[in-house]
Design a protein that fits this description.
Among the domains are: 107-338, 3-Layer(bba) Sandwich (Glucose Oxidase, domain 1), CATH 3.50.30; 571-707, Up-down Bundle (Transcription Elongation Factor S-II, Chain A). It is built from 21 helices and 16 strands. The chain has helices at 14-20, 48-56, 59-69, 80-91, 169-177, 196-205, 288-296, 305-308, 378-396, 413-416, 418-434, 459-466, 478-486, 500-503, 532-539, 544-561, 571-589, 598-624, 627-639, 675-682, 686-707; strands spanning 96-117, 123-124, 149-150, 155-163, 186-190, 210-214, 246-247, 283-286, 330-351, 355-365, 403-410, 435-441, 449-454, 509-515, 661-663, 671-673. Strands 1, 2, 4, 5, 6, 8, 9, 10, 11, 12, 13 and 14 form a twelve-stranded mixed β-sheet that branches. The protein is globular and about 85 Å long. Bound molecules: 2-acetamido-2-deoxy-beta-D-glucopyranose (NAG) (12 copies). The site of one 2-acetamido-2-deoxy-beta-D-glucopyranose (NAG) has 2 residues, from loops.
């Protein structure tokens, strides 16, 4: 994923968690294990086909696929062999598989440097390198990937520096209020919260000239060296040299190849200037040990961290998290990147269904920031190969699904969801006409606690499928474990993984993962230590979370693709949108401003009515076993979310078109509901907010019209 990692901040409630959490790859997770006590539910009995799937899935073969994916350089656009290997594994299990290439703009690291110079002239030189560990083979590969930021700007900067917390707009507002000078300074930012590219964007917009982003052990909960846990590889705590790589694209404005907005990147495609969605100031990621001297140099200068009084400002390192600047104490940094246009390769596998006009798409990205990538993303890649194998067993017995199944192994996700976005941009006419659902698995396993984000029509089938999976070689089913961990809540899709292009073209989606719980070993997100050795020793020993997530994804895909009837729960859209409406009203009421939301309320009521009607028609189709009626209902189910797509997109971000939810403009990962309305209102543009009340209401009425019977 474009984000990752986790924060086990102990005082977070489940609700707060669902709002703040990051997801798969482009972003960082914050997970908290709820302690909801309830009776376990008995597992659901399996059909013969489902039994074939479950029995086909083996942790031993998954561990072999994992080993393959985690022992070769496979940063975006560099490993065609791995794409072909993936196609070969799918083909030998009966899928029609091929590679689909795009020609994208990327940059790769060449060299960088960073030094701290105290006022007295003495210097500190951070290492900027991750440790080589004898136990962990891929940490010493000669072609291991250096620490860097994808899409970072080439440049040099030398200046006094300021600590900016997590670098959200509110952090900058506080710094401005405190009178801390920003113009011409270098920013020292903490990872966590907003997508890293937005930290750089905000710093750039405040006239800062460079950014250094560090990992803070506050994000590791109790599992720290300071608390007596040994660091990896001896123990579960974070290896002190670990560095989080990652993209600094301005994700909440535009994902995909920044030189081809809205259309696929082919060799001869027209290119536009990407400057508005990529940083112009250089940035460098560092470890927490490298950060300590930098932060310590600010102690006693500017405003002390406690007095800054911002959430997540003070971390767990032994410093005061003062703002600085410290007069005469400077950072010098240089960052040299090699910009290029290069092919990336998606692997696409197809099983045609009997209904040519209904399609289920399943996807996982393959590219990683490191040679390993055992969790991000190749736990998902290994799971998908195992799923392809299970479906091969069914194909061999003559099974043919009602719907087409398309399997995507995306390249270039880490730089900004490139492979999936370009593919959707190329195939949108066909997808718009046939896509029923998109199923995403990015970090399939970095621990053993399931977590799911999904559009509302999928909540019921996602829940029922969890009851079919016995979890982690125990007698408990996945549903009960999920209920305890996630509080029985599905998250709302923001961004940070490959479902984004689907959701913003009106295709309902689900994103699933299994994550560490409180007290579990620290997952080294986007670091060399996200390796096969870490996974098999700490993350998922025995590959059981992989195995059960593979069962889950396969059973879900099977049940969405096989039966004549599409198993959607559309009335749940009315329920969920009511809660988004309540959230909007709460936001409005907490201010002195007013906004007339009557049109939205009326549209929601109309939608709720039509949702009941289509549900009744669905029940009738089941009762009468009438194929024509089933097709009619199926097509309404397939199409209604297309109406949520706003043609001009959301304010100032054309790409993001879904009027019901989108990543927050200043979070990048975490979702905002009714985003056009909410963000215009929060910005104080009540004219624009009113415009989006009308647009959103019209979209909901158009959706209601599609499901109308
Ligand atoms: C591609 O990945 C495979 C599998 O991990 C690896 O064996 C191979 O060396 C990689 N290719 C390159 C060019 O690094
Ligand atoms: C220079 O200042 C730093 C920070 O105050 C201090 O740690 C270091 O010992 C000083 N070096 C010399 C040579 O005085
Ligand atoms: C910190 O801010 C909160 C409100 O945001 C305020 O209630 C509290 O008094 C502040 N604390 C300090 C030490 O300024
Ligand atoms: C924290 O830093 C202070 C001042 O630099 C030092 O005196 C103290 O020993 C440090 N504490 C720990 C636990 O390292
Ligand atoms: C930037 O810094 C690097 C490393 O210190 C140096 O080699 C290079 O010449 C500098 N470039 C410019 C334009 O100053
Ligand atoms: C930049 O990449 C190109 C290939 O795209 C390569 O030929 C060239 O040597 C690279 N330059 C540097 C400085 O790494
Ligand atoms: C793959 O394509 C061949 C013909 O090109 C077709 O006969 C076969 O049914 C296809 N397989 C699947 C799983 O769709
Ligand atoms: C599978 O379906 C696609 C799209 O309808 C069609 O173009 C293709 O010819 C089909 N392939 C086979 C083997 O039926
Ligand atoms: C998608 O299909 C809808 C009709 O269902 C149509 O109104 C819309 O223009 C199509 N969008 C695209 C991008 O093809
Ligand atoms: C697979 O799981 C079994 C327990 O069910 C375990 O004994 C075995 O070691 C696991 N295999 C691998 C390769 O981890
Ligand atoms: C609020 O909007 C509704 C629907 O557009 C409209 O009928 C009503 O007159 C508006 N109320 C006010 C006070 O403007
Ligand atoms: C508010 O939004 C409208 C578009 O509806 C735009 O014309 C106007 O410039 C915006 N006002 C401000 C202050 O940004």
């Amino acid at each position: 994923m474009l984000w990752g990692g986790k924060s086990q901040a102990v005082a977070v409630t489940v609700t707060a968690l669902l709002l703040n959490r990051g997801q798969a790859c482009l972003h960082e997770h914050q997970f908290h294990r709820a302690t909801v006590k309830r009776q376990d539910t008995p597992p659901t009995a399996l059909t013969p086909d489902e039994r074939i799937i479950v029995e086909s899935i083996s942790n031993t073969s998954i561990s072999e696929w994992s080993y393959y994916y985690t022992h070769g350089y496979h940063i975006a656009g560099t490993n065609r062999t791995m794409a072909q290997w993936t196609a070969d594994r799918w083909s030998e299990n009966g899928w029609n598989s091929s590679l689909v290439a795009y020609d994208v703009f990327l940059n790769y690291p060449v060299s960088k440097s960073l030094s701290l110079t105290y006022a007295n002239g003495s210097q500190f030189q951070p290492s900027l390198k991750e440790a080589i560990l004898a136990e962990d083979d891929t940490t010493s590969y000669p072609n291991r990937v250096p620490t860097f930021h994808g899409y970072s700007a080439t440049g040099n900067a030398s200046a006094e520096f300021v600590y900016i917390g997590r670098g959200q707009q509110v952090d900058f507002d506080r710094l401005v209020q405190l009178g801390v000078p920003l113009e011409g300074k270098i920013a020292l930012a903490r990872y966590g919260g907003p997508f890293r590219g937005l930290k750089v964007k905000n710093a750039q917009e405040h006239g800062m000239v460079g950014v250094v982003i560090f990992t803070d052990t506050a994000d590791d909960g109790d599992v720290t060296e300071a608390n007596g846990y040994a660091p990896y590889p001896e123990g579960p705590a974070r290896n002190p040299s670990a560095v989080q790589r990652g993209s600094v694209q301005f994700l909440s404005t535009y994902p995909g190849d920044p030189t081809t907005p809205g259309y696929p990147s082919k060799e001869d495609s027209t290119r536009t200037n990407p400057d508005s969605v990529l940083p112009r100031i250089p940035s460098i990621p560092i470890s927490y040990v490298d950060a300590i001297p930098l932060l310590a140099a600010l102690d006693g200068h500017g405003t002390d961290g406690a007095q800054v009084n911002r959430t997540n400002w003070v971390g767990a390192l032994n410093v005061t998290y003062s703002t600085g600047p410290a007069p005469g104490t400077t950072i010098s940094l240089s960052n040299l990147m090699n910009e290029t246009y290069t092919p990336i390769w998606n692997t696409i596998g197809i099983i045609n269904g009997t209904n040519a006009d209904e399609t289920i798409v399943i996807g996982n990205h393959r590219d990683a920031w490191i040679v390993g990538g055992a969790a991000d993303p190749n736990s998902g890649s290994a799971i998908v190969v195992e799923m392809a194998k299970a479906f091969g067993k069914l194909l061999a017995q003559g099974w043919k699904p009602a719907r087409n199944i398309v399997l995507g192994s995306w390249d270039g996700e880490e730089y900004g969801l490139l492979g999936s976005t370009e593919w959707v941009e190329e195939y949108i006419p066909w997808l718009n006409g046939t896509a029923v659902s998109y199923l995403n698995i990015d970090v399939g396993a970095s621990g053993a606690f399931p977590f799911i984000d999904a559009t509302p029509e999928l909540h019921a089938i996602a829940t029922e499928t969890m009851k079919k999976v016995l979890w982690m070689d125990t007698n408990r089913n996945m549903y009960d474990v999920w209920y305890e961990y996630a509080g029985g809540n599905f998250g709302v899709l923001g961004s940070g993984s490959d479902y984004t292009a689907f959701v913003h073209n009106g295709i309902g989606s689900i994103d699933m993962s299994a994550n560490p719980g409180e007290g579990d070993p620290i997952y080294h997100y986007h670091s060399n230590f996200d390796s096969y050795h870490w996974m098999s020793t700490y993350g998922d020993p025995g590959f059981l979370a992989h195995k059960y997530m593979a069962q889950y994804l396969s059973l879900l895909a099977y049940n969405l693709a096989t039966p004549a009837r599409i198993q959607f729960d559309v009335p749940n859209w009315a329920t969920q949108m009511d809660s988004y409406y309540d959230d909007l009203i709460a936001i409005i009421s907490s201010t002195s401003k007013t906004l007339n939301t009557t049109a939205l309320r009326r549209a929601l009521d109309e939608f709720a009515l039509r949702a009941q009607e289509v549900q009744a028609l669905d029940d009738q189709a089941v009762a009468t076993n009438d194929p024509a009626l089933t097709t009619l209902v199926n097509h309404k189910y397939r199409d209604f979310q297309r109406a949520f797509v706003s043609q001009g997109g959301l304010p100032n971000r054309e790409f993001y078109k879904n009027l019901i939810f989108a990543p927050g403009l200043d979070t990048g990962y975490a979702p905002t509901t009714f985003p056009g309305i909410t963000e215009a209102f929060n910005d104080g543009n009540l004219t624009l907010a009113a415009e989006f009340v009308q647009k959103t209401a019209n979209a909901i009425l158009a959706a209601a019209n599609i499901i109308k019977t």
